[in-house]
Amino acid sequence: xxxxxxxxxxxxxxxxxxxxxxxxxxxxxxxxxxxxxxxxxxxxxxxxxxxxxxxxxxxxxxxxxxxxxxxxxxxxxxxxxxxxxxxxxxxxxxxxxxxxxxxxxxxxxxxxxxxxxxxxxxxxxxxxxxxxxxxxxxxxxxxxxxxxxxxxxxxxxxxxxxxxxxxxxxxxxxxxxxxxxxxxxxxxxxxxxxxxxxxxxxxxxxxxxxxxxxxxxxxxxxxxxxxxxxxxxxxxxxxxxxxxxxxx
Length: 248
Hints:
By secondary structure, the protein is an all-beta fold. The chain has one domain (14-155, 163-243). The protein is built from 1 helix and 16 strands.
């Protein structure tokens, strides 16, 4: 029988990506254009407990893949790329690391498809100021993704426990510039779809929270696919997610 986590043992996960899209599956064509700066959680936040947050954790361990929380522990995060645009769970680790990914302060794992940078890519702005990348701007302290034409960037989070989690999506918005062709963002548990949202350039949305039971070793995948092969370097996407382990 499961016991609720004691205060100080709850785990949260935050991540940031970068997306380009105009209509969402929740309110097609109704979302206003907006851009948000990634929230940077810290030990001074209310009820800090134990947390996993993509942007903070990746900034703390940018040269590791997979990597743990900024506090250490299990290496629950991994940065991957799809072999095709089929979401089949077959996502190898991104092979290469750059400590200066297109600009000083940007650190990323990436594939081999040439563009203004090599794609697909998942990285983080390790500075406290916005940094230009290709046609767009990576917000301060944010994590980001950029898709390739036939390979999606994938952020994976593997549960280190048996228990229940809540995934909260604070914002998804496109920050890649006006030349983007749009992206679709997916949240999958293994190959089971949990959420989907499509956005056009310069648009953003909030998503409803998702609660799921997980077994140790099961993986959540956050996938960003291009809607077109045009303007890929412009399809940089910001994503904010918080995952709370509410029962273990």
